[in-house]
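Give me the fold.
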Amino acid sequence: MDVDVRGLNPILDVTGLGGDDSKKKGIYFDTMENCNGPWDATCVLPRLSAIEVASAVEFERQDREIKDLKIEITELRHKMEVQEQLNVKRELEIVGVPEQLNENLTHVVMIASKKIGVDLQMTDLDEVRRVGTKNPKNTTNRTVSRPIVVKFLSKIKRDDVLSAYKGRRKLTSEDLVPGSSSSVYINERLTAQNRQLFREARTRAKMQNFQYCWTRNGTVFIRKAANTNGFKHPAIPIRSQKDIEDHLGQVCTPAECVLQEDFPRESVPAILPN
């Protein structure tokens, strides 16, 4: 067996490969027992092979470790997202109310509650404010009003307002402030990630002819159609983009997911299942 080993170092360093160096050295020296010197061609290749095996084992261990760390990071991110959604469980958004100088947002909220038939008191409110960039523009370069965020002292009262709105589902800016009339929507507050998930889910739901897409307690749901003749279409929770792909096909592109400014947070279509 003719092997040119003139460029090889007879003392092969197996340290720094990770794992138990003593075991790898043991593998190395075992191959030296029957050798006639460090450059014996019958021994060089087995020595190299032993080191390659040890390296492959170490690389495999590191690969498993990386995969485990990725799973752990995903789980931690999910826990953080769940906690962030819980932090806004007493909040809702009112979208479509034109901004005015020296506006009294608390007064706007009180009027809106009366319009939908809820007996709301000042003591039920913790905070009322607008959120987002001031004077934002939509895709047609029109200025749109920032949403109003209402934080309640009780989630029960927040849910009462949402339920009353869903029962009526007709509210206009003319009901609340002077000026031209436009549709006003009331939605539960979502985190940025859940808002994006809802946006993508309803866009894809419409493309796949799903009749319903809505949120409840921070979770997005879809349903193919209304329950008829004893047949029940299940409400399918959407908690990740993988869920969208599994139930609705490929996730939409940013262009497909652009919301129309007149319907910034409504379901597709603008009705919820019973």
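Helices lie at 21-30, 41-87, 105-115, 155-168, 192-207, 241-248.
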